Amino acid sequence: MRELERNRDAPDTGASTGLRSLAVIGAGRTGGSVTPAARAAGLDVRVGTRGTAAVTAGGSDITLLCVPDESISAVCAEVATATDLPAYVGHVSGATGLDALEPAARRGAQIFRLHPLQTIPAPGTSLAGVPAAVTGSSPAAAEVARTLARRLGMVPFDLAEEHRAAYHAGAVLASNFVLTLAETAADLLTRAGVKDARAALTPLLLSTAANWAGAGPAALTGPIARGDEETVRAHQAALAGLAPELLPAYTALADRTRAVAAVAAYKNQGGTPVSTPKIVRTREELRAALAPARRAGTRIGLVPTMGFLHEGHASLLRAARERCDVVVMSLFVNPTQFGPNEDLAAYPRDEAADLAMAAAAGVDLVYAPAADHVYPPGFATTVEVGGELTNVLCGDPARRGAAHFRGVTTVVAKLLNAVGPDVAFFGQKDAQQAIVVRAMARDLELPVEIAVLPTVREPDGLAMSSRNVYLTAEERIRARALNQALTVAADTARTAGEGSAIRDALAAAGKVLADAGIEPEYLEARDAENLTVAERFGDRPVLIAVAARVGRARLIDNVVVQVVQVVQGA
Ligand code: AMP
């Protein structure tokens, strides 16, 4: 901002570029605002419209097309017929590419875009201080566009052509979508009985915008910033009754807000995010980025994830940050661990939010390869842990099957090879996965420590999972039964004590699930280390694991019970 203000204080005179004359094609809102600003800046301005574009443009230093997006190409073709073609031809659209100016470029003009990042409601709107995105077909064209913007009183910033659509989406988010949100909020208040909802909301909306302009993510207040998920759920329940069509939007925005809150919380703790994590997409970039750390012999930590991060992932990232010098997070939805009828295509993805959470947790490097980079044509090697471990629970052929774990161990082996970490971090939430990965590392003598961290839960006990996003409000409430069932099983075991039959604990857990209308895919007790069937509680830890479909979501959870000395592992 300071940089922008400095620029504003020192408008460019244009002397350096010899900019004297400007042809403005179009006399609408933007053209009608550019023209007076250019005249006030001392430029010789001619104004034309479609039909007179060639005559108007001929002989000008710069021709600026201020016409509707869909006409740019046609009007540019007219300009290109001018006998004395202008050296520079630009347009003012945010959504349209430079390619719309091809007709002028073909005849030798340099082309540019100059997009005012502000709504221009009428001709004669002041452009003073308006930020303007500038893209040129050459450094000279970009410089001319910057100079013109400054002469008009605007504050230019550079935008690469390849990021035009992303930039424009950002503009739509900040303007159109904010209006949509405000209108939606007003509609909700009206339904809640508030009389003049717009008047009631206006001070809040304006002060929020002003606070954000001053403080960025630190200006975030409200239940999500406070970590008050109870209130968020109350909102969702209220919406389910009063405005169910708004639930998906609310839920998506709540997720997004959690990512913003994570960054804000980190900054509030006195730091900038430890990192703006560097994102790499190939093993070559990854190796190059890690080379200095490896040479220096520092400790590298890896947290493999499939993204759509939540607090469970964040706990692994924080542990890695604490224990390691360099933290690498992989972000890869691994196709080979999904069965043909599973949710690969629908698996939730939000790379921007993941990067924000990674920054908040202090990740140094995010490895986010494309699927065909990990599995190029000809890929034919897999890593499989044999025996019981991968054939029971989720690995049962009637469920996800051993192929699921083959996909997991293959990708984890590849990630371990690519990153070469000292420690890799996994969650107890996927207990069988952690056991299988440990077995692989042991059997293949991989020089890595496999650290397994406790399951992170929502306040009501539901294990956090990227797949929870599939749950409707009603299913979300029913899904609590998974953890409740496991808790009942653990309590039953503790009460009955050493030697008690596991089937009694499972029966009690099964009843909780049945009461919630949940039919488990499995609810089983197995030795927590080797996954053999366990029959009685004793001095060995017992893993009680459950998998169940709730609506679209296949959820898993587990608890580890040791009646002699209870281990809070899950
Ligand atoms: P995913 O992105 O689902 O593949 O998970 C990446 C890692 O995060 C795995 O090691 C998971 O076990 C772990 N994880 C997922 N959910 C949780 C949770 N609720 N608590 C702790 N770790 C989790």
UniProtKB/TrEMBL annotation:
(R)-pantoate binds at Q337, Q433. It is found in: Cytoplasm. GO terms for biological process: pantothenate biosynthetic process. Residues 56-116 form the Putative oxidoreductase/dehydrogenase Rossmann-like domain. Its EC number is 6.3.2.1. The active site is at H313 (proton donor). Pathway: Cofactor biosynthesis; (R)-pantothenate biosynthesis; (R)-pantothenate from (R)-pantoate and beta-alanine: step 1/1. One of its GO terms (cellular component) is cytosol. SUPFAM superfamilies: 6-phosphogluconate dehydrogenase C-terminal domain-like, NAD(P)-binding Rossmann-fold domains, Nucleotidylyl transferase. HAMAP family: PanC. Homodimer. Catalyzes the condensation of pantoate with beta-alanine in an ATP-dependent reaction via a pantoyl-adenylate intermediate. The reaction proceeds by a bi uni uni bi ping pong mechanism. This is Pantothenate synthetase. It comes from Actinopolymorpha rutila. The gene is panC.
